[in-house]
Amino acid sequence: MKHETKISGERIETPVESPLHDVEQDELKGSSGRRNLIIAAIVAAAVIIGGIVYFSGTGAGETSVAAGADEGSSQAVTVVVPGSSTVERVINATGTFAARREMPIGVAGEGGQVIRVLVEPGTWVKQGQALAIIDKAVQNQQSRALAAEIGVAEADLQLAQNQLERAKQLVGRGFISQADVDQRTATRDQAIARLEVAKARLRERQAANARLNIVAPASGLVLERNVEPGQVVGAGSGVLFRMAAGGEMELRAQLSESDLAGLSNGVTAKVTPTGTSKSFEGQVWQVAPIISEQSRQGIARIALPYDPAIRPGGFGSVAIVSGATDSPVLPESAIQSDAKGAYVYIVSKDNKVERRDIETGGVNASGITVTSGLAGNEKVVLYAAGFLNPGETVNPQVRGNEQVASAGNGG
């Protein structure tokens, strides 16, 4: 506020600072100070959160603050170019152990009462070795009777031969006719025939007696015993013993159609029985010619040497090496999955994120094999792919395969 004072006719204007004027100046100074404090606080907050804050103005005392740069607005991601590696194609499956050549053994002869059983399951036997003894008391008497018949036939033959020789001497002197000689010759021949019949009947009886005992048809391992002493057995008694020829075993692995299609005889396999950490080397010796209509699976039969840990009827797992392929290999961190299946994120030439659906194969020390979906020359997001979205712009940081392998192995 201003006051005017007039002296000696001249108008003299003298500025006078009123108390109100002083208050206005103090308010202005205080307002400027508070504004500066507010700006400083905002700048500090902007630095803490790592964002970018701009203040601009044209008047005196106005401040411009910037933190960060335009290029920092794109998220930095680690990517890897997997290339292509030679990877063994391994088929993992499960199956049941069984004898490679199982032999069911029953009664081959007329049967009878079992008086002794000579083997137990787990016994190794040779071809022709007796497994069980059948009572042959009646059959032995029959054999003796047939042997006696042979003696009678031999005596009859001797008598007929002597009569024929005398007749030949007498016919020249005229004491008997030629017809008598012919008669005696026929009698001698009949005696020879009866002797041969008696001998044949004895041999038949002896062969039948030999078949009474239950014997091993081949060398191998006894798997089952289903007979006890005192039991009467015959043709309808069923299987009394089961054997594995040569003791050879096998795993009958259940495989899908696609796995069977790439499998051939002779490929190696590593078999592990359930309940043990011991593994056995085997070979595929037969691939099933048919597929089950119900399960859509077939059987690959894997030959194995004998070992007590391999028990027919038991369960086991197998890894079959069925060749090698050139495929990309990625660490587990790069592979995502959802309802549609497995996928990865790749970074395009313009640094845009793209989803790529893949199919995975076996797992080895280097990572997971990608059987389809990748050529190997793509930039695949290695970490934090779950926080990305297709179409997002990123700043890719390429990492070497050696570093990826080291990280994947805990290095």
How are the SSEs ordered, and which strands pair?
Layout: E1 3-7, E2 10-14, H1 19-49, E3 75-80, E4 85-99, E5 102-105, E6 112-117, E7 124-125, E8 130-134, H2 137-171, H3 178-212, E9 214-215, E10 220-225, E11 232-233, E12 241-245, E13 249-256, H4 257-261, E14 268-273, E15 280-287, E16 297-304, E17 315-327, E18 329-330, E19 336-338, E20 341-347, E21 353-357, E22 359-364, E23 367-372, E24 379-381, E25 394-398, H5 401-408
Parallel strand pairs: 3-25
Antiparallel strand pairs: 1-2, 3-24, 4-13, 4-17, 5-12, 6-8, 6-11, 7-10, 8-9, 10-12, 13-16, 14-15, 14-17, 15-16, 18-23, 19-20, 20-21, 20-24, 22-23
Transmembrane segments: 37-55
Domain YknX-like C-terminal permuted SH3-like: 329-395
Domain CusB-like beta-barrel: 251-321
Characterise this structure.
The chain is of the alpha+beta class. It folds into three domains: 3-70; 74-100 and 248-411, Efflux pump adaptor protein, beta barrel domain (Elongation Factor Tu (Ef-tu), domain 3, Beta Barrel), CATH 2.40.30; 102-233, Orthogonal Bundle (Helix Hairpins). The chain is built from five helices and 25 strands. The strands form six sheets. Strands 3, 19, 20, 21, 24 and 25 form a six-stranded mixed sheet that branches. Helix 2 packs antiparallel against helix 3 (178-212). The chain is rod-shaped, with a radius of gyration of 52 Å. The two termini are 81 Å apart. Mean pLDDT is 79; it is low at 1-33, 42-71 and 405-411.
